[in-house]
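Researcher: Good morning. I'm working through a list of sequences from a screen, and I'd like to move beyond sequence-only analysis. For each chain I'm collecting a predicted structure so we can compare shapes side by side. This is the next one on the list. No need for commentary yet; just the structure.
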Amino acid sequence: MTSAPNLAPGARVGPYEVLALLGEGGMGQVYRARDERLSREVALKVVHADLAQDAERLRRFEHEAKAAGTLNHPNIVAVYDTGQHDGAPYIVTELLQGETLRDRMATGAVGTRKAVDYAVQIARGLAAAHERGIVHRDLKPENLFLTRDGLVKILDFGIAKLGRPGDEKAGTDIETLSHTGTSPGTMLGTVGYMSPEQVRGLPTDHRSDLFSFGAVLLEVVTGKRAFKGATAADTLSAILREDPTEPRGSGPGLPPGLLRVVRRCLEKTPEDRFQSARDLAFALEGATTDSKTATTESLPPPKRRRPIALVLGAVSLLGVGGLAWLALGLAPPTPPPAFQRLTFRLGRVESAQFAPDGETIVYGAEWGSSPTELFSTRVSTRGSRSLGLRDAAILAISSREEMAILLRPQLVTWTIYEGTLARAPLAGGTPREVLEGVLDADWSRDAKDLAVIHVVGDRYRLEYPIGRVLYEPNPPNWMSSLRVSRAGDQIAFTEHPVTGDQRGGVSVVGLQGRRRSLASGFVAINRVQWSPNGDEVWFSATRGSGSPQQIHAVSLTGRERVVAEAAGSLQALDVSTDGRALASRGTVWTETRARARGSSGETELPAADLSFVADLADDGTIVLGTDVGEGGGPNFSFYVQRTDGSAPVWLGEGDGHALSSDGRFALAVLVHARPQQLIVAPTGAGETRTLDPGAIVRYSRAVWDGTGRSVVFAGIDEKDRERLYVQDVAEGPPRAVTEEGVTLARIGRPVSPDGRQVVAVGPDGVPALYPLAGGQPVALPGLGELDVPICWTTDGRELMVARYENDSSRIERVDVTSGRTRPWSRLGRSLPSGLLGQDRILVTPDGESYAYSRVRYFTDLYLTSPLR
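Model: Good morning. Structure tokens for this chain:
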């Protein structure tokens, strides 16, 4: 067989323009290409034409490529398209920037913690594929890709098996191909990573991938192949007979917890392995070593019994010095840090900083129903005094005792706020405003300049000094906190892959704009600090579902450890030069309640720790909700629940948006997919369907049109243009119905009862009526920027509107023609304080039923003993 000639730049393959050759392998060439229809660059894999002469092989290629195209997961490469060009099949995938795991391993040891981070991501990707009935069968380091932003992508589900035997050079992996799929007597896979059942030519299932996974993980951590012989036959024999985790003298090995995971993956019989990739991922999350375990710990030798007399004799010879040595060997580890409580009021501490003297502390707190206010206290005294600055948060204090504060902070998500940056003297005085749209700021070492995270439109910029952009990620990536290094030459910051979501990692950027990722894969992360000696970045984070929020550390080489932990949420707000930390320790949960039609009172709806209602059925019997906390997992989970307090019915991963009018279907968005996906999930029996996204890459809000046949959503394309779309759920792509800059409110049912109009928010931020057939919007008299329409009344003449004015909030009926208002008094004086602030309330069109969820969050400020 001969390779097909390379395609020159500018050549056309279907609708794709070839830009450059990226590489060539056994299956064909890989090109960087441009899809002119969507204005995006893609990876174009053109398979050798002679491979397509086998009809059965071509059929299997098309079948498996389509199967891979149904997968949409952040840890699986996205398949966009397939086709044929001059008789050769091709496949189009997302274009990745980074390197394969094989390339990464060639540069040196990976380290246990980083390897486990990679492994957890791979396991999650496998779980997503296996749940769709898709088995990889050729998992190896070459098919695992590490992107520049810290994600691991699994490549070539079912595609790599088209490679031609004999293409590999001597001493490399040998790939054995089948013309009959996975029939008995057939081998499929790569020697060295095949499972025993693959070697024997037996039928395989998803557990075969778990064996290959174990071989890869062992190699990543130890730097040695799990199974490798002088010949391919020797390697196959080793897979059937040898246990690579048995001790083999000195050399790098595995920590005990990880060793148990690898051994179970490499069991010869599928029934003895993990039975699902999800179970494997869960086991991996608990297998990381503690901060004092070396990443190259040798495998422990088998334990042998020693004669008791010999042991006693050895102890008697040790004498006093020997006993002292034993005592040192058994000495307890360094005690955990001590916590000194500094605040004693019911409310929330939002920010805190040490003054240059190391004894004065400035903190921002919201006590009771009062707005956030700045206070000062001292380590050696009890009590606090107000600085006279209200509706403000402290960001940093310079060496010249000047404060950087955030005025009029507005909550972005959880403990992250956006406001106006101002400077104010620590001794007191009127603040001087500097910059709007700031999330965090820190002083330069000479106290002259400020580094900031500046929000401009939908983009987040790290500027230092103000106005000079050092780093600006592409949406939906965003940043939340930063700190200038003690040497002043780097800035550490937290970065997140989805706007508004706290999942992410830690990066540093130099003064010339070179960014490096240090740690990733955290479910929630915020509040970066530099360690006392400046060789580590400390940050508050949660590693996985069910784990507490701890203070973590990562070195500039990527080595991670846990610095401190405590019950509840623990956040380091500032760290002094001697290692003491100002930390907030709190508890957060959501309270969800509903009142059904005819009910005499509210019913509590227990679901999970951080669940928010998204929609309420017209008859008030069912709510749709999303859990964004630990119980919901890293990609959120959505559910339906009856308002009588029955247990929730979990529908799957994603962010729930809306219920159909009959309650049979729910709209949800897979927020962490790339691009995001809008799905229709049955609330009862049935199959979940994914809607054609067209040019959409992100969804702001999706609702039903009232008939259940179409959806209306606010979508964002690759050029960051947001507008409203209408889409038939049965077939076809979405159709734009408004100009740019139009979106939907996060909650409520905005489509009119006749299905002709929708209440949306235009570029001016004011709600208006937009015709779904297209055309100019109609103003809604009496509505302003802070008003959120919840639903239409049954007759279509009024809107139920949540109104936010100054410190008060209420719900009113607003006539859509005249703007006349009248109160909705169903809640009356029992309206919970602050209910309409950060939280959500839903009301039925007849006004007789409602449901709400509100965050309950309380914190206190603590001073820790020096952390190490």
